[in-house]
């Protein structure tokens, strides 16, 4: 895959900007901002999509398929880390000597004059970013933002606002979150991930320490996650108690959290209270799951850290209705409901399925798991098997979605299914139509089906629904 030079000096004028892989959730959001600021934007993607159609309506010229001719008269190329070195547009840009920017470099350049709130962490970034943006709008603010998923109530993943505040989901997967000139940093957790890039847990946590120390105003960080606790200890070492308290706000269920979340009720939409400066504030979200109460506490900590009134902040957070691909209902056939979720790490899978359990009632949970990345599947096969078996009643494991990685010998979805303690609870079915037919044969009224993964597993949903219709027709 491409490893862009993150030390590259970015030209003062980017001119005409061409996005390779423009349809992705992150890339499309950044492209939208460039269009909003009057830039000429072109792009390419492997397939058409609603994101591509929306960008065309805003004036972007988007090609389907990758070809050197697509670059046209572009002055700057913007790419993702998922691109391959032999991409013809990338090759031509290098031959021409054009600046080739990682998407985070392009975004950092675009927002360099703003007061930046950066949301990072192995899980919960998209939801937490959406909560902060939704709350700021509810508080009468007009922030700019780029999120990793479409905010349901807004119908977009990015927008240009009139205020100085800019909220971004900051991607730690390749270290590019260190490019931003962050004022307020929110760290949802430092759960080990992306070790294919960092090489070790120590290097992964060191990147979050660096991200924290770069924040010019405030760090908001989990008090429950063990990795985050280690990061907090490092960044507060040597500071006076008053100085550390002024610079760092912790949040979570830990008794000594600066913002302590408690009294969580997970039956249906989650209800909870947060304790802040001797006062309790309560809310009920529109979305389920204990993890979302924790996410809301982090968003609350950011808002009060920015100076907003606590009760109004929590009320505004409660208006958040979710983001696409986060426990998103796609249809119900014969009493069987089919949801899709972006969860692709064991901790995320556990959170998504635990949230489903709170609202499924007497029905069962059937997980359709698409392993993402060969390296992650190899490293976490046992952890995936454990959480799937513990939180779902039945699991269907699909083939690995390799994304930016080449296949590894012996690494398939079977690595996960073979690690179940009870083989009758799981089936490895790499062919999608076979998987849909198998699901239809085992599902019954009241069940929740949840597709899980950050690859293209959401594209199997129509097949699942069609198979359910046929089985019940």
TrEMBL record:
<keyword id="KW-0132">Cell division</keyword>
<keyword id="KW-0436">Ligase</keyword>
<keyword id="KW-0961">Cell wall biogenesis/degradation</keyword>
<dbReference type="InterPro" id="IPR000713">
    <property type="entry name" value="Mur_ligase_N"/>
</dbReference>
<dbReference type="InterPro" id="IPR036615">
    <property type="entry name" value="Mur_ligase_C_dom_sf"/>
</dbReference>
<keyword id="KW-0133">Cell shape</keyword>
<dbReference type="Pfam" id="PF01225">
    <property type="entry name" value="Mur_ligase"/>
</dbReference>
<feature type="binding site">
    <location>
        <begin position="121"/>
        <end position="127"/>
    </location>
    <ligand>
        <name>ATP</name>
    </ligand>
</feature>
<feature type="domain" description="Mur ligase N-terminal catalytic">
    <location>
        <begin position="17"/>
        <end position="114"/>
    </location>
</feature>
<feature type="domain" description="Mur ligase C-terminal">
    <location>
        <begin position="325"/>
        <end position="455"/>
    </location>
</feature>
<dbReference type="GO" id="GO:0008360">
    <property type="term" value="P:regulation of cell shape"/>
</dbReference>
<dbReference type="GO" id="GO:0005737">
    <property type="term" value="C:cytoplasm"/>
</dbReference>
<dbReference type="GO" id="GO:0071555">
    <property type="term" value="P:cell wall organization"/>
</dbReference>
<feature type="domain" description="Mur ligase central">
    <location>
        <begin position="119"/>
        <end position="302"/>
    </location>
</feature>
<dbReference type="GO" id="GO:0005524">
    <property type="term" value="F:ATP binding"/>
</dbReference>
<dbReference type="GO" id="GO:0008763">
    <property type="term" value="F:UDP-N-acetylmuramate-L-alanine ligase activity"/>
</dbReference>
<dbReference type="Pfam" id="PF02875">
    <property type="entry name" value="Mur_ligase_C"/>
</dbReference>
<dbReference type="InterPro" id="IPR050061">
    <property type="entry name" value="MurCDEF_pg_biosynth"/>
</dbReference>
<comment type="pathway">
    <text>Cell wall biogenesis; peptidoglycan biosynthesis.</text>
</comment>
<dbReference type="InterPro" id="IPR013221">
    <property type="entry name" value="Mur_ligase_cen"/>
</dbReference>
<keyword id="KW-0067">ATP-binding</keyword>
<keyword id="KW-0547">Nucleotide-binding</keyword>
<keyword id="KW-0963">Cytoplasm</keyword>
<keyword id="KW-0573">Peptidoglycan synthesis</keyword>
<comment type="similarity">
    <text>Belongs to the MurCDEF family.</text>
</comment>
<dbReference type="Pfam" id="PF08245">
    <property type="entry name" value="Mur_ligase_M"/>
</dbReference>
<dbReference type="InterPro" id="IPR004101">
    <property type="entry name" value="Mur_ligase_C"/>
</dbReference>
<dbReference type="GO" id="GO:0051301">
    <property type="term" value="P:cell division"/>
</dbReference>
<dbReference type="InterPro" id="IPR005758">
    <property type="entry name" value="UDP-N-AcMur_Ala_ligase_MurC"/>
</dbReference>
<dbReference type="InterPro" id="IPR036565">
    <property type="entry name" value="Mur-like_cat_sf"/>
</dbReference>
<keyword id="KW-0131">Cell cycle</keyword>
<protein>
    <recommendedName>
        <fullName>UDP-N-acetylmuramate--L-alanine ligase</fullName>
        <ecNumber>6.3.2.8</ecNumber>
    </recommendedName>
</protein>
<dbReference type="GO" id="GO:0009252">
    <property type="term" value="P:peptidoglycan biosynthetic process"/>
</dbReference>
<comment type="function">
    <text>Cell wall formation.</text>
</comment>
